[in-house]
Design brief:
single chain; mainly alpha; 10% strand; two-stranded antiparallel sheet
Amino acid sequence: MHSVWKTSIRFTLITTVLLGLVYPLAITGIAHMLFPHQAAGSLVHVGERIVGSSLIGQSFSSDRYFHSRPSAAGNGYDATSSGGSNLAQSSQK
């Protein structure tokens, strides 16, 4: 019975290290080599200041898309004035 516990603990530790550390670090490294701009967050700079990401809050203008991310910020997806409400799209308000 003692060897079953040792084997199960060893297996848990090995899979935790492999799947929790080695695999994510390897995939992140590959992503940074193949897609450096996207892997770094696709940051948008104005001067030396980071103002956002080109991948978040994209506006969709084609009918082939379902819905874009809802935003109370109006045009430009200004995250500082964004907020949600609990009203449905069918609400008169």
